[in-house]
């Protein structure tokens, strides 16, 4: 249960109802962060537009690498909603979600490529308080991903820190996307 109640459909503004219907069609359920942010329609609209823009604009990296780095941030921050949603997203993209059980041991696991290990270490370094990113990490990732890829990786890690910290602070917990209880989106 979130720390502030979700705005029910019947009490939502016309724009919020539109967002709810769109999200329900896309994910099978209205994501709880959306219904909690509905208390502030401007914040909800900004977040929804940002997420839609990100989905269309960020294409320099393979989606699997981007999603893996985002997932790592969610686990480090401790946002169970983000972990739940991220697992569902990777499952729907046909990715190996069994390896997510080894995410805390990525550095020694053979289930992650060297590029993925560097990206995950970068996510850890960006998420640490204070951040511990090194020049060497940036140089290695830049050489491998290029300027555009590194900029995208940095941006999605930063955005997930925003999401995970906001949702965690609001007490938004897993919604059942992983189990399929909330999400009726079919497998590919």
In brief, what are we looking at here?
The chain is mainly alpha-helical. The protein has helices spanning 14-27, 32-37, 41-57, 63-77, 80-92, 114-127, 135-169.
If you had to describe this structure to a student in words, what would you say it looks like?
Helix content is 61%, strand content 0%. The protein has 2 domains: 9-57, no CATH class; 63-169, AhpD-like (Up-down Bundle). Residues 182-188 have low confidence and may be disordered. Helix 4 packs parallel to helix 6. It has helices at 14-27, 32-37, 41-57, 63-77, 80-92, 114-127, 135-169. The chain is globular and about 50 Å long. It has 7 helices and no strands. The protein has 188 residues and is an all-alpha fold.
Protein traits:
188 residues; mainly alpha; AhpD-like; 2 domains; globular; disordered C terminus; oxidoreductase
What oligomeric state best describes the polypeptide chains here? single chain
Radius of gyration: 17 Å
Number of helices: 7
Strand content: under 5%
Q: Between the first and last Cα atoms, what is the distance in angstroms?
A: 31 Å
Looking at the structure, what is the overall shape?
A: globular
Return the structural class.
Answer: mainly alpha
How many structural domains can be distinguished in the coordinates? 2
Largest sheet: none
CATH-level-2 architecture of the largest domain: Up-down Bundle
CATH homologous superfamily placement of the largest domain: AhpD-like
CATH fold type of the largest domain: AhpD-like
Helix amount:
55-70%
Number of β-strand runs: 0
Secondary-structure element order, as H and E? Answer: HHHHHHH
Q: On the 0-100 scale, what is the average pLDDT?
A: 92
CATH class label of the largest domain = Mainly Alpha
Low-confidence stretches: 182-188
GO molecular function: peroxiredoxin activity
Keywords: Oxidoreductase, Peroxidase
Protein name: Alkylhydroperoxidase AhpD family core domain-containing protein
Domain Carboxymuconolactone decarboxylase-like: 48-124
């Amino acid at each position: 249960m979130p720390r502030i109640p979700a705005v029910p459909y019947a009490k939502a503004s016309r724009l919020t109802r539109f967002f709810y219907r769109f999200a329900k069609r896309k994910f099978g359920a209205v994501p709880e962060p959306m219904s909690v942010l509905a208390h502030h329609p401007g914040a909800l609209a900004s977040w929804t537009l940002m997420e839609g823009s990100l989905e269309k604009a960020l294409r320099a990296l393979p989606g699997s690498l981007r999603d893996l780095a985002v997932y790592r941030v969610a686990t480090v921050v401790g946002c169970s909603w983000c972990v739940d949603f991220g697992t569902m997203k990777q499952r729907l993209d046909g990715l190996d979600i069994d390896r997510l059980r080894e995410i805390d041991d990525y550095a020694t696991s053979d289930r992650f490529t060297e590029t993925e290990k560097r990206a995950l270490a970068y996510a850890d370094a960006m998420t640490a308080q204070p951040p511990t990113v090194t020049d060497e990490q940036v140089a290695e990732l830049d050489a491998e991903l290029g300027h555009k890829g590194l900029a995208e990786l940095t941006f999605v890690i930063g955005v997930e820190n925003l999401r995970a910290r906001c949702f965690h602070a609001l007490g938004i917990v897993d919604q059942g996307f992983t189990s399929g209880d909330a999400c009726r989106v079919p497998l590919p």
